[in-house]
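Please go through the sequence and fold tokens given here and tell me how the chain folds. Record follows.
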Amino acid sequence: MAGIIYSGDWLQHHTKMISEGFKVDRIITDIPSFDGRWNGANGVQGIGTIRDLVSATVRAGEKMIDNPDGTMTISCTGIAQEKLNEWLAQQSVWELMPDSTWAMFRPYMRKASTNKHFWGRRDDWTFVQTFRKVGSSVLLNKDAWPGSNEHNNAFDFFPMPDSMNDVELSAFRSPFHKGEHDAKERQKWLAKQGISYEEVELSDRGGLKVVGQLGSDAHFTDGYVVQFSTDPADWHHITKRITQLVSLGLDTEIKEMFEGNKFRGCRQLAGGNHKHVMLSMWMLATHTNAGDKVLDPFCGFGSTGAACAIMGRDFVGVEMNKTRKDIAQNTFDELFTKKAVG
């Protein structure tokens, strides 16, 4: 098993990788669409650059995936989603995999007495989609993840709402992705629920963070909720911490590397909060097979790479920010020799 993360511009890297005959089995990525945050080729920013990122990603899939059951799993929003829809309508090699589209929620808070939930997510029409080659019969293996019934998040086992009527959605990310602190999602929900809270200034990156004093009837929750349909039976809570799923069978040393911040890469990646790695592990379990080579062209701090190291997949990442690239590589290197799944 191997893992390598390249530093630099995906628009340039994908051309070089294609010319060198680079091959992978899967692409799993969240295409960035923050206005003005991502520098494209020659430092150019804006709508055209974001659309170019989509084109580069799907072109990489077309050229690098020759596995007949290879897949591309792509998350994006706003103008990036529009470009992805254009690509799908203009080609005949790839198709949307049946029963594979899901929305990705963040369960921010819950009021216990009424089981009232506040989940933040992207705009209603934005989702995660998996594409397979026309003629392939490959499907997601939704039963490959043990579930979250044993998850204790400092109050009760996580109770799902009875319907979408009990979930309050945020919808603020079109045409560009916008951060939760900028949108003040939690503050708006707490005010509507009559729940007291405090705010602290995030001096290092701007905006406000909500903290403390929610009382015994209201709780911060965390992790992710994956929703395949409006039926609560198709909702899956991905827990916040890597040790909260006993049935996952993780090696003790893997748990200690995250919970105890035992090694530098894991400490920098997780910081005591493993929800991104947990979501990536769920995606690998349900969307890939052991031994697959997975490409993430926008790998960030490397949560997908960490999950690949834990779950026995080869990993290739590309990341523009060198600091993030180094953290991603350090984390993979620390994890990949460990026997993770018993």
Q: What stands out?
A: The first strand starts at residue 3 and ends at 7. The domain at 3-335 is CATH 3.40.50.150 (Rossmann fold). The chain has one domain: 3-335.
